[in-house]
């Protein structure tokens, strides 16, 4: 298939590009290095250095991988994006091109403004580029489990039938997110659903949980093909932060009570899920939603797992609770459905001790480069 | 109270400004003439000429009204809006500053882009101007009943308790709108709710139905103080369109089956509702939602009412169904709650035959200026 990957330089975008190229798809990646720019501005650069996107693509091809088309362009510029869609005529677009940091989106007006404009703007531009230039193209959009927040009822896969005063109807599952970044994904979903209904485009919205992992079949070919590894409070997930704290001999910092529960998945399962969604496209006029994760943990459980994995490498690790910089429930009900992708054939890779140990082994050579200042929270949700 | 009115040159903004000034509030109106510009570009100018906002304010003061502060500025420009909020230090902001036309928002990429950027951008800027410069200020935001669409269950006032698999939680009532314009208001509500939760601002979101009427106590002082009267397919409501068709001897054009039901209200009731919301502010950290309309009609019922009112003026009026340019249900369940504003003291003005006759009498002198080309639909929802 002809696949356009927006945000191809990202943590998910780059491994997806290699994986799809390897499977024989014709791949075009687009990125404007927004994440790299924000990482520089906020002192949140990745721990492991990575070449730029054009160099990554050349390295991958030189290592025996298949060629891919690289475009350095801002998808928030409609002229550029629509030209790429018109010329490349994709059968599927994987839309990862969003500012992905919740803490960054909470830093103040300027960061919030950038997040809202970029994320909603790219989604809007993509919808129109598809309507105008490739109306049959399937949009596979990266949403987030964070759109749902932590409601006191079971979370369904995108839709819910509500019975109210003796009558029934089906609606998008109600969503209320915990950061402006997550809220932009709520808005994205509303916008996509509107254009699905009125213009008959086809969309799959993947409500994904936090992803972990550095190893994919293609990334393992050459160390320079490694996915981005951020461990800071801006771009780092809690898993990465804990692993780096373990490697640096810093206590694992649990925000508040640590009962925050989320659904997690291995990077290799993201690759599977996106491929499965692409190979089984939504119908015209359909917004299909999958909840994309394989297992759920509390923050305390993650800390315990990292502590155990670290012990195998003779690293002694303490766990410490610190005041929560976020506004979120620290203990809550959490029971999200996630059967849709399993039914399409997803074979999960679970977060075993081996997986965490392998990540630690990958991190340890960079021990000296760990900046202790950036593992502690630098952004508060409100003031 | 010190009241900032964004969109003060609009159909609602201008009568609100006069009404609040008359009641002794200190009023500052802001507008960038976006509606006038779009009206020119789309050949949708108002039937009755109106002076610009600065002239209106001068005329009103010269006629014995109270002075108000007029700022011609684009609220989508954060620098300008935040400066106005910082200097004026409003106790309430009435936020009408949105591109209000559903058909315009469906004209194509450029119009949709302008609508999304302007509407969401102004709401976002207002939230931040309030957070940074007037955190106690109450935001009274004009939403729309159109946010709810036409679900098959009763519409509540903004919130719904959902019981699902034996557990319960309260959510924003699910919303899915029929145009991009209405969808921007869905997104506005989500954005406001996010910042209410995280930053503790106070917001009232008024889910208003279509408004009709040209007469208010202040507008009646001088004919040049008349509210904007659009009858075209872009800015004209169905009521205005039918009245103008009746005045021009053109058949009333019902879109499709005409069973489309909406909640309507008189312009004087909008003034009451906004004043009631302002005088009884939402608490800090509260998003309060009212459904703002007083009676509901199908399009066919409106056509019958206009036909009867026209008969009193010896105008013979035919009713005709034409293909529906919109994507909407032409027959549907509709039972929205609207008790909140009544409980605050709203005294409704209903759509009597006298009210419609008075509007027709106001229109008839402009009979010769009616452009028949612009009463028929010029925009289709999808192609």
Which oligomeric state applies? homodimer
Count every helix of chain A, treating DSSP H or I runs of 4 or more residues as helices: 12
Over all CA atoms, what is the radius of gyration of chain A? 20 Å
Q: Which percent band covers the strand fraction of chain A?
A: 15-25%
By DSSP, the count of extended strands of chain A is 14
**Fraction of residues of chain A in helices?**
25-40%
Given the C-alpha coordinates, what overall shape of chain A results?
globular
Strand order of the largest sheet of chain A: 3-2-1-4-5-8-12
- Structure class of chain A: alpha/beta
Main β sheet profile of chain A? 7 strands, parallel
User: What is the end-to-end distance of chain A?
Assistant: 49 Å
The largest contact between protein chains, plus residue counts on each side, is: A-B, 46 and 46 residues
For the residues shown, what is the average pLDDT of chain A? Answer: 98
Point out poorly predicted stretches of chain A: none
Helix/strand order of chain A, N-terminal first: EHEHHEHEHHEEEHEEHEEHEEHEHH
